[in-house]
Amino acid sequence: MGTTLSRRALNRATLARQLLLERSTMNPLEITEHLAGLQAQTTNTWYVGFWSRMESFDPQVVSQLMEQRMLVRIALMRSTIHLVSAQDCLDFRLPVQPPIVRSTTGAFGKNWTGLDLDEVVSKGRELLEQEPLTFNDLGHKLQESWPDRDAPSLAQAVRAFAPLIQIPPRGLWGRSGLAKHTTAESYLGKPLNPSTDPAPIVLRYLKAFGPSTVMDAQNWSGLTKLGEVFDVLRPQLVTFRSEDGKELFDLPEAPRPSEDTPAPARILYDFDNVLLGHADRSRIIDQAHVDAFWIDVRPVYGKVLIDGDVQGVWRVEKGTFIVTSLKKIPQAEIAKEGMRLLTFLAPKAESHDVQFALRG
Description:
The chain is an alpha+beta fold and 360 residues long. Among the domains are: 97-162, no CATH class; 285-358, no CATH class. It contains 15 helices and 13 strands. It has helices at 7-17, 28-34, 47-51, 59-67, 86-92, 97-108, 117-130, 135-143, 151-161, 184-188, 199-209, 214-221, 227-233, 290-293, 332-345; strands at 3-4, 38-39, 71-75, 81-85, 164-166, 181-183, 238-241, 247-250, 266-268, 302-306, 309-317, 320-325, 353-358. Strands 2-4-3-5-6 form a 5-stranded antiparallel sheet. A 5-stranded mixed sheet has the order 9-10-11-12-13, covered by helices on one side. Strands 1-7-8 form a 3-stranded mixed sheet, with no helix packed on it. α7 (117-130) crosses α9 and α8 (135-143) packs across α9 (151-161). The termini are far apart.
């Protein structure tokens, strides 16, 4: 049956994998690969993900890596844009294509009826490799060949079946730009890894998020039927049980600190994958707080971890770091973190302050 791991033990293991127990000396490229990518559909909030995990962080280094095409932003897990290394882009894209196709088909598939999708995707690739385009411009150019179809559906057909990188300056620190895309192969000058086997990605997932259930891995990746993959990998893994009896898988040598390990206050960005990497998120947030603090609540704010648990949300307004919680929380440590964050996010503000508020 395996040893039972408490909720707190799972919390500490996850924080250790996510570099949230102790800030890392790894560089941004190493951290990106260690985490199997950072969710990055926003233009810049994910830079806080590096700041929260690194001893010393210069956002311009990440921007330089993007300009050097060593880091890229592309739709991968859950059909969501992630920042990944160039190599992981090439290795991950085909194994995670099913959820990309599934989600896009759900939204646009009825408009593809009667289309030769291979022909549309081929034409889309040709256009994007001639010149990076926004999806709006791509759709209108495709309408020249398929005038009876709407532009968004044509563009999204290309997104579903072709690996499209969103190129700089979009996503660079302190800069802006249109969301223009080109193909991964043309941008990186290399072909995709032809393997569609998800097993290597599952191992990478466990390294960054384990111990985890099959459903956890499916939730993170967007893939289905991973139970079969875990069965093949089982001889390489160790197993545990959660407090509610679910089977947990992990890498044998991965860190699993004592549940008594101190967890420092940490500040997470709005779509930090530590918040999204499990189907059962109770290891990181009390179920009673989900309705108040979770990703489905709009607007989406960053989260505050105290003793490893989500205890509030945060935002920055004109040099003030504002924490909103459901109950009174220890303030000293998170206030110190907040002041540090302000030097990063609002270096030109006339003054810096931290405020705490209770949610009404």
